[in-house]
Amino acid sequence: MPATPPSRHYHPLPQPGTVTPAHALQWVATGWRLFLRKPGVWMVQTLIFILVIAALGFVPLIGWAAAPVALPVLVAGLVAGADALARGEALRVDHLFDGLRLHAGNLLLVGGFHLLGALIAALIAAAIGGSAMFTGSMMGAFGGMGVAAGGMMLGVLVFSVLWGLLMMALWFAPALVMLHDVAPLDAMKLSAQACFQNLLTFVVLAVMLYILGWIAMLPAGLGVFVLIPVLAGALQAAWRDTFSPPKALPPAAHLTE
């Protein structure tokens, strides 16, 4: 008889809970507090993060693809550092590479899906815009210009929607792979589920981060050395509240027994 293969243990997938728009402000505030604990270490991490992404972008032939694929690996490292700091441990510069050390394969797969999703969104939008421009060129001057402009606007709209869906799938994916050991596709599905389930909360968070991004650009872009650590802390706090909510206290009657 052939030997029975050893059984594999599958841990249950974490399920997203409910969070309110007020949590979005709390997450950003938590990110800020975590930054203030070790600003020097965070800034060094951010500098290395930027240099690595920029260097990957200059790799001949594949630079355009290397950076998006590597991004979740580095984000997972930032989140791991924020999680260690939130648990009272020391933040180290080499936390940035924890994703590479511990879950490189799965995080690179998340990056691959990131790249594939972006390419699909761009191709669909380009197809819509291109077909509209071709149709417009066949219709003549005035009517054709309207069709072409409308088609281009539709292409931009479709791309924006698809990009938003991709960002929902990616938002929690690095944290779920890194901190919950979830498989890449499951992590992206759970991330999208969490964002849809709490859509208003994450719309509020997206608006806040958009505003903070513009503010960070004002002092010659140097604000990114604060923004990226705050984002890492906010992402860790969002993951904690959405997928690992604090356990409820036991009833008072049990406490007195």
From TrEMBL:
Transmembrane spans: 41-63, 69-86, 107-128, 148-173, 194-216, 222-239
Keyword Transmembrane in record: yes
Domain DUF7847 span(s) in chain numbering: 24-235
Keywords for the protein's UniProt record, in alphabetical order: Membrane, Transmembrane, Transmembrane helix
InterPro entries: BPSS1780-like (IPR047798), DUF7847 (IPR057169)
Pfam families named in the record: DUF7847
Protein name, as recorded: DUF7847 domain-containing protein
Originating organism: Parazoarcus communis
